[in-house]
Structures are given as C-alpha cells and as structure tokens.
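Lab notebook page, bench 4
Experiment: in silico fold of construct C2
Operator: M.H.
Input chain length: 382 residues
Purpose: comparison with the prior construct
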Amino acid sequence: MKRLFVLLISIAAFMVACDDSTHYKISGRISNAEGQYVYLDKLKVSSSENVDSVKIGKSGEFEFDGIVQHPTFFLLKLSDRNFITLLVDSAEQVQVAGDAANFSRDYIVNGSEGSAQVQELNQHLSHTKHLLDSISSLHVLFRTDPNYPRLKKKWEKEYNEVVEEQIKYSQNFVTSHPFSMANVLALYQKFDNDNFVIQDIQSLKTAASALNSFYPESEHVKALYANTIKLMQDERSARIQQLIQEQGENSPDIVLPDPDGKEVALSSLRGKYVLLQFWSAQDRGSRIMNPVLVELYKKYNRKGFEIYQVSVDEDRYEWVDAIDQDKLSWINVGDMEGSRTAVINYNVQQVPFNYLLDDEGVIIAKDLKGPALDRLLGEELN
C-alpha cells in the first residue's frame, strides 16, 4: 500500500511538472496607470481575441498567466491605440516595464526572446518610416525652390537607400532566425498599405518551410504556408506569361514522344482546333473524362478538331494499356518522367486539365468539361 501511495505521489508530481512546462507568465509594471485595466489579447491571423484583463495595482504592477503549446502572439493593451506586441512561448516568464504615456513606443521586455525580436523588428521599421517621412516632407517644403530639381534627385537617392537598408535588414533577420516565429511578423511588415518590406519569394519559401516543420499547428504558420504556396503559383503563372510574351505566341510548344517513340510537336497541329489535355492513366478523374473525349472526337474530328493528350505518368505499361482500354485514337504523348517541362510551362496543378487552342495556336479557353467543351467546339467549328 505504501509503495502504491509513493507511486501516485510521483505520478502527480510528474503531471504538475508537465503542466508547469506549458505555463507562461507575463508580469511587470506600468507607471502612471494605477487603477486602470490592462488587457491581454491573443493575436489571430485576421483578428484578436481577448484572453484576460487585470486591474493595475498601486505600484503599477500586473500579472497574467496561461498555457500555450507553441510561440503565440499577444497584444498587451492599455487601449486600442496604446499596446505592445509580445511573442510568448511555453514556460516563459516575461517581464514588461513601461510608462502609460508612451507605452506603445518605449518599453522594456525581458524573459522572452521572441518578444525581444518583435520589439526589435517594430522599432527598426518605425525608425525607417520616420526617416522616409522626413525625406518626403522635404519635397513639400522645397517644391517652389529654384534648386528643387537638383534636390529632388538627391532626396530620391536617399529615400531609396533607406528603403534598401530596411529590406536588407529584414531579409537578414529572416535568414538569421529561420525557426523564430518572429519571422511571421518580419514577412508581413509593410512600408505602407500596399508595399511589403520583403517581396522576394525565396525568403518566404525558406521561412514558411522552416516554420512549418517546427510549428505545423500554429494558425499563423498555416496561413503563411498557404500564402506562400499561392504566391509560388502566381509566380509560376507570371513566368508562363513572360515566356509567352518572349516567344511571341500564346502557347509554348511541346515536343514529346508518342507510344511508338516518335516525337510529335504541338505546333505541328496549327490549322486545327486542338484540345491540349493533361492526364494520367492512374487518375480516376482522367479515366472518367476519356469516354467523353472519345465522343467529342468522333463528333468534331472531321471538322478540324484534334486532341493532343499529354501523360504525366511514369509507368509506360499503364499508360499504353489505358490508351488501349479507353480506345484513345488521337495523339498521345509523354516522356514517362511526368512530362515536367510541359506541366510547368502550362502551370498544370492537377489532372485532368486542358487548354483549347484555336487554329492559330492561341489559347481560347481552359479547364473545359464535357458540356462546356461540346458547346464551345460547336460554336467554333459549325
């Protein structure tokens, strides 16, 4: 019985220790705020949620405690316009000191590396914005000065140098702290409402990948990761448009081998309306669409309609077998390595996916399903 009692005590002590490991405490003193309330809000992706509030003591003291599973952004607020941002991890003992009059601009934080990094980021950007505003005000003050054209060039150079310094600082911060949640703030900081400080996709990719590996359950990391994927897709689309402009044509050419090993170029079909269809023999959706294409091919082939079907498969046997089973009599090509160049050039994110090209090779529609494709072919070829 005594051994059981000792075991229970040990388990209880272990549970308390584990519980303490996730508890944070935020305490400190805010002078000239005695009797006021200070609020702790959890900062979410697009809003904030009040967690707690306490009345500030006679000596300006206050204290909050709670549980977080990963570094979490909080707003410590005296009012909606007078607050600071903290980044608090589990088990951190955060101490904050400041004066109510200028709390948001001048405070001291200890015991939290993330909160110190957030303060550093905000103060550096605030200083940068102050410099930019000062330079901008010179344009207004000296606009009527005879030397303004010369001065304008000088100030524009200074303005751009300040901007470049901030960009370099922010990029270096992200590179130097790859696994810090403060990177979320660094990546979303703006010079103004429209211009992010960090705009290069590589910094986003590096930070999003690193943070997602460490904090996959953080809603901020999930949002950053999703936004990065979207930007990568947009960048890929932009590269396609640039390629199209450089080539002077609407659709980049594709040259891939058919099942007999003969290379067939998409451009060789000029003069016909061509459905450029991306598919996979292993994809159920692709196989379901094949019978629809068979009917449309019979209906419109003699009127100048052709199908150029690109396989993203890597198994030649399954590809050829699917062509035979589905009775696909049109042009089928694939390099059995995923046809990656064609997939990238046409920004294919999933299969089945298609583009409809007119007789001059101009893309006139994309991702057409059976009825829509039938209707458009009828309009173009009848």
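Observations: The first helix runs from residue 2 to 20. The first strand starts at residue 23 and ends at 31.
Next step: discuss at group meeting.
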